[in-house]
Amino acid sequence: MSKQFDVVVIGGGPGGYIAAIRAAQLGFQVACIDEWKNAAGGPAPGGTCTNVGCIPSKALLQSSEHFEHANHHFAEHGITAKDVKMDVAKMIARKDNVVKQNNDGILYLFKKNKVTFFHGRGSFAGKAEGGYTIHVAGKTEESITAKQVIIATGSNARALPGTPFDEVNVLSNDGALRVGAVPKKLALIGSGVIGLEMGSVWRRLGADVTILEGLPTFLGAVDEQIAKEAKKAFDKQGLKIELGVKVGEIVNGKKGVTVNYTNAKGEAVVLDADKLIVSIGRVPNTIGLNAEAIGLQLDERGAIVVDGDCKTNVPGVWAVGDVVRGPMLAHKAEEEGVAVAERIAGQHGHVNFNTIPWVIYTSPEIAWVGRTEQQLKADGVAYKAGTFPFLANGRARALGDTTGMVKFLADATTDEILGVHMVGPQVSELISEAVVAMEFKASAEDIARICHAHPSLSEATKEAALAVDKRTLNF
Q1: Which residues does NAD(+) bind (predicted)?
Q2: Parallel, antiparallel, or unpaired for β 365-370 and 30-34?
Q3: Are 472 and 393 a contacting pair, CB within 8 Å?
């Protein structure tokens, strides 16, 4: 007889495992299905984020940053470090261990919260009395039934037409995290989050890195002033970023990859590289879900169609995260997962898309929340802006990293904060204050009048808020 559950979650990434845990906390009998395998073939829940995304990339960024500091910045602190070498295999092994710790942590959380875990691929078999039948294809075949289903199957890397990923020379985010030695020449197509972060890792370790971007502007979604500041820093580091290119034929050979492209001046260029990382976005993962078995509606991109509450067109079936509309961010998926679990329980789950923070974990880091200056101009919103450079921040000077700034945008009449944008040291942590402020509809003056610890990087946030009223104290 089929095992019966109140809620079944298909997918164990950030949206899925969090949804399962929250549903269990609310008193439901919950199961979570996830097919990701570790090297030994065992379960590895956590989705793209934990296995080949957010977590492993941050581990490599940290290792490569230590290497960069030892080679280029220790001397100014009076530290002598000679003949510093990077053992790439050991760096990758450390990354793998960090991933495993997160995988194991999720399995522990399932056990703690009494969530039944099924290791395999979940797909719809059809409707059942009072719910749905879901087939689990793993080491053993199982069928389970659920009154409510939450789909959290995530996304896959988008390949260039005619250039499939072989994860040897042509790499997705997966292959980019498993490179066994520092390539002499590395090419990347796409200057988004993955392109910049992976480009930074291998540039620090000695690779000659070229990033090709089709758009004429750098980081078009980022506030223009912040993007320009970041570009200056990346140029100085030796990260070669070419904008406005048109990629032509790509030849994947035994010794590497040749990329033919036309640059912004209209000149034909041939770029030979040992490895090519393609990071041109991601596509919703609905392959094998058997959506047609229950009449589940997909859009032209293959994403599951949902309303504002993450309800699909099929009663009792919900979808969250990368597989639906909205930003493909792990923390957005988590918030939707919690909200859906609470809605199933008759509560009023809430996700505010206007206060979802964005972060790029390069050095300098880039973080923002809310609208950019160019968006406010396009919308005809009257605003005031205030900026403060890390150059004038005491803690940044002590750290030896004074690149970048904090920028506030506030309503010209009410002073309500409309957007906060940062580039500089540890801004991935600083942005949370801005998110809290915007959730509570704070004004720039509210932040300006809050006491911030001295010396701290957070003082740059206070000073930028003061700058909205043209009254900075330290610049």
Answers
A1: 190-197, 213, 281
A2: unpaired
A3: no
Number of domains in the chain: 3
Residue 66 annotated as lining a ligand binding site: no
Report pLDDT digits (tens) over 354-409. Answer: 999 999 999 999 999 999 999 999 999 999 999 999 999 999 999 999 999 999 99
154 is in an annotated binding site: yes
195 is in an annotated binding site: yes
Same domain, 313 and 440: no
- Distance CA(27)–CA(273), nearest Å, equals 54
Q: What is the pLDDT of residues 184-240, one digit of tens each?
A: 999 999 999 999 999 999 999 999 999 999 999 999 999 999 999 999 999 999 999
138 & 31 share domain:
yes
3-class secondary structure, 416: strand
Same domain, 95 and 151: yes
Residue 48: CA count within 13 A, CB half-sphere: 25
244-289 pLDDT, tens digit per residue, is 999 999 999 999 999 999 999 999 999 999 999 999 999 999 999 9
Of 205, 195, 258, which is closest to residue 230 (Cα–Cα)?
Answer: 195
Residue 63, C-beta contacts closer than 8 angstroms, at least 6 positions apart: 86, 91, 94, 95
What does the alpha-carbon distance between residue 281 and residue 199 come to, in Å, rounded to a whole number?
Answer: 16
Supply the pLDDT for residue 225. 98
Cis? peptide before 216, omega within 30° of 0: no
Tell whether the torsion through CA atoms of 431, 435, 440 and 444 is positive or negative.
Answer: positive
Under 8 Å between Cβ of 401 and 433: no
Domain carrying residue 254: 170-280
Enumerate the active-site residues.
454
Mean pLDDT within 71-75: 95
How high is the mean pLDDT of the chain?
A: 97
List all residues 6 or more positions away from 73 whose beta carbon is below 8 Å from its beta carbon: 400
Residue length, the chain? 475
